[in-house]
Amino acid sequence: MFRSLRQRLEGIGEGYGGSQPLRGYLTTLTVYASVVSGLTAVAAATGRRGPSRPAAGDVILIAVATHKLSRLLAKEAVTSPLRAAVTRFEGAAGSSEVNEVPRATGSGHAAAELISCPFCLGVWVSTGFCAGLVFLPRLTRLVATGLTAVAGSDFLQLAYDAAKAATGNAGRHGG
């Protein structure tokens, strides 16, 4: 007799150990693969092609923009309403960021990890930017430029605050 796929996955999960939501991770991977496959099919059907060798400037621009958008979505206090249904606030993390933990179980736990982890979210954000370079390159570069400027501003704000603190000149609200 053949066991169902669900029973096989549960057996694998038990053998793996720990409390990792493997089914949720598998669902997330399946959704991601479906999105990439769909984007690839649409690109092929419309004759769109990515560059055979991406420009170094685009790689750097997309890297910095991915960093900023991933942190904005996963950690910023202002975007916490987007995560509140599946995460629990743990405390402030400094520089307008928050620490949150997943409160859902199973697939919901995996989704909560994805949207509250800038490293996890970075893969999805980068994929979106890469698709943007194929379908809407000018708009994608403009949006990525804006996010890169904000990331640069963030680093300058932190450097400014650090310089003030080093000289004993820190005031209220970091200003």
Automatic annotation (TrEMBL):
InterPro entries: Mycophage_PG1_Gp7. This is DUF1360 domain-containing protein. It comes from the Bacteria. It comes from Rugosimonospora acidiphila.
